[in-house]
Structures are given as C-alpha cells and as structure tokens.
Specification:
FAD/NAD(P)-binding domain, alpha/beta, 5-stranded parallel sheet, 6-stranded antiparallel sheet, globular
C-alpha cells in the first residue's frame, strides 16, 4: 500500500488532518492506539455489557473525569494496563480515551476563537515565547472550521471574544436573562452571552439538530455533537484516500540523518504485540499533547539525543492546563429549575475575560472567564458540599441554583514538564511518561479572584446561600493540557514554526495541543482544529511543489 502521509491520532486534530489531506488527493494512513468504535453506538447493549465487566480500580485516574460512568467506561484508557508516572507532590490527571475518535467522542463541545489578547500575551508580559502567529493568521481558518462543523452561538460584538460563523443560538432561560440584565446594568467591563458550542441547534451538514435527537440519549452519543467519527473522518473516507488502523500504538519515529527527514513510524499492534515500520513522505502528530511529545522523546537518536526535533531543548517543557473551578454557586428561591431531565440545553452561558484587558490592573498576570448554568439545587451543590445551603431548598426544591465555573489561564513554566522514565516501561517495552506539574502563585491568585468576583455577581443578582470555592484543581482535570512542543519564531527556543512544522525536520508536523505556546482562558479545541487545517494547506503546497 502506498502512503503519502501518516496521521497519528483520530480525534479533533487528527480527524481534521485526515480530511484536509485526503481531499487534496494524498493517501493517508490514520493510526490510533484505541479500539474500533462503532459509529454512534457507544451505548449499544454489547458495549454496555463490555463496559460493566471492567473493575473501577482499573480506572483510578479516568474515573475522576465528570463523564466517566458504566456507560462510557469502555471508551476510556485502562490505567492499570496503560499506566504513567504520576508524582504525588505534583499530581496530574492524564485523561485518555481508548477508541478511534479520541476525546472527540466525549468532549462537551465548547468552541471559542482566541484573540490577539491571547496571541500577544507572551510578548507583552515576557512569560513564554512570542507566538509566531496572530489572530489575522487564523481568522479565515476559524471560519472554515466553523462552517463545516456547525457552531451554535450569537454575535457578542466584544473585542476580546471574536465572533464567528454561527448557527442560531440556544435560548436563554428566564433566570439567565435576569442575570444577564444585572451584568449589563452594573458592569461596563463584562458581558454574559450564550455559550458557543459544536452541538447543532439546526440540521447541518448531514447531521441532525440536538432537539431532533432521541431525548433519552446523552449528548455525547447524539449526532448533533461534532465528533471526528461523524464528520471529518467520514469526509476523508469519501475520498477513497483514507485508511484507518485501530489498535496501532506508535512507539517512535524513524529519522534519516542524510535526508533530514522522518521516513517511517514504528508501530505496535496492541492486540498481538506485533511490530512494524510504516513509511511515508510526511508525518502529522495529532495523538494529543502528552502522547505526541512522548513519541518525539522516545524517538531520540544520534542526531537528536534528547528527543526528535529537539535542538532547542524545550521539548517536554512548558506544560499547561486551565484552572477549571466551580467558583461560586447561589440559589434563587423564587425561580423553579427549568430543566426537564431530558434535552436540558447543552450550552452553558459565558462571561469572557474582563481582568487585565487594557493594562495590568491586578496583582496577577492574565485572567479568566466563566461558564455558567442553571441546575437543580441538590445537583449543583453536591460537588462543593452543601455549605450554607438552607435545608428548606432540598426539602422543597422549587428553587433554582446557578453555578459560575471559572476557567483561569495558566502561565507557561519550564519546570511543568513531561519526561520519560527509563526504569519503568509498559507491556510493550516503551518508557512510561513521567508528568511533573503544579499550579503556582499566579494561578492561586487567579482562582481566588474568580471566586471573589463570582460571589459578588451572584449577590448583586439576589442569589442566596452563596458558596464560594477556591480549592485548586489537580492539573489535567480540565482536560485542556497544552504545550510541551511549542510554536515559536526562534528555533533556539521552540519546537515548531508558525505552520506547526518542525524547525528541525521539514516533513514533521505537530498540530494537537502540544503546539501551544500559551493557554488563554477559553477552550482551545477550535484553535487546534484551525491550526490543523492551516498546517495541512501549508504542507500540501510544500508537497505539491516537491519541497517535502
């Protein structure tokens, strides 16, 4: 079989790479360490039976994820069979799926464009390297991705939250409308808008709107949620140029010093343990932040003794994650919860960043935003304890609770890192990933301010029994890990250039979260996909011109 390009990973980034490259006429082999996943059959009786057979003790890390359950267990990594080294003093929860489609199978669908507030942040305050791109470089690619996947949202006309190409927005609840008015009437630096989500509000591109789905299905199983297996991978398959190979763990890449090219990937069959080398002209790493960097670190050779494409020495460093924290919860006694238990609106509302916008105003750098939602009183307070909650609200739950969940920006730090443990290996003889990560004082101050401002807004709106929360999360809990193979202008301080291409090896691209040079405060998924589409266009031009 002739292969032009190998794409490692089939999630959000890998699906986009497969689609874009096959549509340009290239033959693509997509490799995924996970199992074959029946399209939209995650809850079929056979899969549920298989899911129930696993021991929860096998999923000590994965079970910390909010969507882990008996229904989804079969889609998660088995921590006992596929361990990593986790420091007790600097813990990090590495959430991994184990099926073709990756984490796109179970994500929540939040999608936001980044702005130059994000792309210029490193240069402005000196933390991290300057991004080699700005918003203008990604603007058309954001729109390109949005048009294909379908984004429900509304125009906000807020300079630090760029608007996109939106399908009709979800509807506000009455309580949200009241809270929105309070924000508008009392603050000139912030707004509340409906969340932007890759969950369809109307039929789009062959997929059905959320309200047209079976109401008994969870969101992740509906066709309205964008996933690679219901969108980008089928589009790639239609070209006839895509081959997907499941149960294929990429151990390392093969590098040819004479040509300065990656020539092949070393693959382990996770079922049989069989080994093979597969050749290709170009390799796209889209395996997820930590997995892609693990492959590069394990591909060390005579020319790159500290990891492939690592002449800079920064590979593995500057790991980031959002501080996703339930900052405050309040009760509105006069408002009954509007949800029905089926088809509760899948989009939260959003308050974008309002701190340190025009100048440095706070003691901390960067900032944060909120996602917020209405919920049953008992369900809302359960994660943080009942605190000062009036027991009458539980006995007669006619009230509604409102949650503000802060998402804070983590700065890039050299000593937040992943490395390989040569003394501990998995069952295939591959060194385990060792993750060392902790949030520092700047992140602590952000989390404290998130709680303070959330409490103030809820109190202003008349909420009662307000509970604040400033407990720092464990790294990885937001499932937004980024960095470790960052983009940059200077090959001496970065791994990738402005097109996600290795500075050192021209036929090697990394387009998942590993490429990120900073973390912003909003979800990174849309940026991953836009960067991937842009990188594919660049690689296509290089391949067709014979440069690679």
């Amino acid at each position: 079989m002739h292969i032009d390009i190998i794409v490692v990973g089939t999630g959000l980034s890998g699906g986009w790479a497969a689609k874009e490259l096959t549509e340009q006429g290239f033959s693509v082999l997509a490799l995924d360490s996970g199992a074959e996943n029946p399209r939209n059959e995650a809850n079929s009786p056979s899969n549920l039976q298989n899911a129930m057979q696993g021991d929860t003790a096998d999923y000590l890390i994965q079970s910390k994820n909010y969507i882990f359950s008996d229904r989804t267990r079969h889609l998660f990594n088995n921590d006992r069979l596929n361990p990593y080294v986790r420091s007790e003093s600097k813990p990090f929860n590495w959430i991994r799926t184990n099926a073709v489609g990756g984490r796109s199978l179970l994500w929540a669908g939040s999608v936001y464009r980044w702005s130059d507030l994000d792309f210029e942040a490193n240069k402005r305050d000196g933390h991290g390297v300057d991004w080699p791109i700005r918003y203008a470089d990604l603007e058309k690619w954001y729109g390109y991705v949005e048009d294909f996947i379908g984004i429900s949202g509304c125009v906000a006309n807020f300079s630090y939250l760029p608007d996109g190409n939106f399908l009709p927005p979800m509807e506000y609840t009455a309580l949200e409308k009241k809270f929105k008015r309070v924000i508008h009437d009392n603050y000139n630096d912030r707004l509340l808008t409906i969340g932007r989500t890759a969950i369809l509000s109307v039929d789009h591109n062959g997929r059905s709107a959320y309200l047209n789905q079976d109401p008994s299905l969870p969101i992740y199983q509906t066709d309205s949620l964008f996933k690679s297996i219901n969108s980008t991978l089928p589009a790639a398959e239609k070209t006839g140029n895509l081959t997907i190979r499941a149960n294929s763990l990429v151990k390392s890449l093969v590098y040819d010093k004479k040509t300065n090219r990656v020539t092949a990937v070393r693959v382990v069959d996770t079922h049989t343990g069989g080994r093979s080398e597969i050749s290709a002209r170009v390799v796209f790493l889209c395996a997820s932040t930590i997995a892609s960097t693990q492959i590069l670190l394990n591909s060390r050779c005579e020319s790159f003794k500290n990891g492939l494409a690592n002449s800079s020495g920064v590979l593995g460093h500057y790991l980031m994650d959002h501080m996703a924290v339930i900052s405050a919860i309040g009760v509105m006694p006069s408002t009954r919860y509007a949800g029905t238990g089926t088809h509760v609106r899948p989009a939260p509302v959003h308050i974008p960043r309002f701190q340190n916008l025009h100048q440095q105003e706070k003691s901390f750098l960067r900032g944060y935003g909120y996602l917020a939602w209405e919920d049953r009183v008992d369900g809302a307070y359960a994660p943080v304890g009942m605190g000062a909650l009036n027991p009458e609200y539980i006995k007669n739950p006619t009230a509604s609770a409102f949650t503000l969940m802060g998402f804070g920006e983590c700065l890039p730090y050299y000593d937040n890192l992943i490395k390989l443990d040569e003394h501990k290996k998995n069952k295939f003889g591959i060194p385990l990933v060792n993750i060392e990560f902790n949030f520092k004082e700047n992140e602590v101050q952000i989390v404290n301010d998130m709680a303070k401002e959330a409490e103030a807004m809820l109190a202003l709106a008349g909420f009662e029994s307000i509970v604040e929360n400033t407990v720092m999360p464990v790294g990885g809990s937001s499932i937004h890990e980024m960095g470790t193979a960052r983009m940059g202008r200077d090959p001496k301080t970065s791994v990738l250039n402005g097109f996600n291409q290795s500075h050192d090896i021209p036929n090697l691209f990394v387009t998942d979260g590993a490429c990120m040079a900073s973390s912003s405060h909003v979800h990174p998924s849309l940026t991953y996909m836009a960067l991937t589409a842009r990188a594919c266009a660049y690689a296509t031009n290089l391949m067709k011109s014979g440069v690679i």
